[in-house]
């Protein structure tokens, strides 16, 4: 390492004083103006990680659904996964190091991880459409080059597209071509083949309205549109030409406000979906003939996908298992439907894609979704091999099911949850099963629920267990929650410190909206009293 050069460049990316930085569930995320030094240092870290794994590493500059003024960065590991936990700690350490400690921290990481500094390094970089993203990605490049790494800057990409590129580059092209055309071709080929097998036709089924959150998803869907022409016609809204990124639109807005985005006109029973700002989340919705809004969130997406995959496996007749992974936020009725009606085993993990992803790898087919719309399906090597063999050999029903499954496997971006890939899978399944959006929605009815935030002096005073469903500390809080839950029917509630905001999150569900609202409020009061609430006491009403 040329420490003279590192220092020379590092002082040009000075760390602001008085701030603490933490590599959280979604990497670093904050006001864009505080991020320059972090970008430079993540460039350095990506080079070390690349040398250590002898693989290409990705760096994505985005703050997803956060406001336009924010930005963020996360590293992508060799197979397109999230960064390994021990390296998250190095990232935090490096981000907080004072200028004079940089050398020591870099040597420390290299020694602990036995990094061969002579090894070549390659880093690929992507960014979203935020005004600050271009300059910040230049700072990443500065960090990469000063440590002698090679790089390829893909420029504007969705987060899942960058994961895809990393995965392609580290699997010698087996996963696909590491270009944007390669991505479009892989997905659209699988999609078009699937829709050819669908019996139904007509515009009603082919057209979909997409709210792009005024983000990168709009640019990429526009580029992709003509590849899909035979199977799907998308109408884009909030495409970034007028509105502000994530403002009153996008998947996060629609899910948390349970209402349609601004800037989209919805006629009754039209099928609509929303992406978030970096296109790794998707939710569907429609308005019925009475104008009522119906949200189809990640839980219902998981239900549609896992039921369909299970049917295919039954056709194929192999002894392969399907499992669904959710978090505590999954609606109780979705879990009940999956377990009791679909007879699919369901597992619950902590919030955050990496936890779900990890658990889903345990199954032949692991479908994971957070209620907020992050998710995908993972397929074991055994499934891929079996399906390829059957699809090539057989022309009967079993062969047909295998062909469908082979295309579904190609269509999912298994490197990461991907709004574009998920959308195409969903559209293909609806077409193949001749399901309308209303029929899909009617699989089960969501239990009314409410999410609230409570501000406390130190959110670390709340610790949880059982996949965040039980509070361990502070003493007495879980008992208080248990007593409150008993007052309502079909009720459930839990609290957890947020990983992305300085708040405690409260979730409650019950048999009616009034009960869910009231339970959420009572639990918020318990948190406020027992966990050191600050500011105004939580008030009833929303
Ligand atoms: C991050 C996570 C998301 C999770 C959310 C929870 C990734 C890529 N993103 O956005 O999965 O749902 O955090 O936020 O892992 P919270 O901790 O503030 O509730
Ligand atoms: Mg996102």
From TrEMBL:
Source superkingdom: Eukaryota
Boundaries of every Phosphoacetylglucosamine mutase AMG1 domain copy: 177-283, 297-433
GO annotation (BP), single: protein O-linked glycosylation
InterPro entries, alphabetized: A-D-PHexomutase_a/b/a-I, A-D-PHexomutase_a/b/a-I/II/III, A-D-PHexomutase_C, A-D-PHexomutase_C_sf, A-D-PHexomutase_CS, AMG1_II, AMG1_III, PAGM
EC identifiers of the protein: 5.4.2.3
Active site: 64 (phosphoserine intermediate)
Domain Alpha-D-phosphohexomutase C-terminal: 453-524
Sorted UniProt keywords: Acetylation, Carbohydrate metabolism, Isomerase, Magnesium, Metal-binding, Phosphoprotein
Pathway assigned in UniProt: Nucleotide-sugar biosynthesis; UDP-N-acetyl-alpha-D-glucosamine biosynthesis; N-acetyl-alpha-D-glucosamine 1-phosphate from alpha-D-glucosamine 6-phosphate (route I): step 2/2
One Gene Ontology molecular-function label: phosphoacetylglucosamine mutase activity
Annotated Mg(2+) binding sites: 64, 276, 278, 280
Entry similarity comment: Belongs to the phosphohexose mutase family.
Known role: Catalyzes the conversion of GlcNAc-6-P into GlcNAc-1-P during the synthesis of uridine diphosphate/UDP-GlcNAc, a sugar nucleotide critical to multiple glycosylation pathways including protein N- and O-glycosylation.
Record protein name field: Phosphoacetylglucosamine mutase
Taxonomic lineage from the root: Eukaryota, Metazoa, Chordata, Craniata, Vertebrata
Gene name of this polypeptide: PGM3
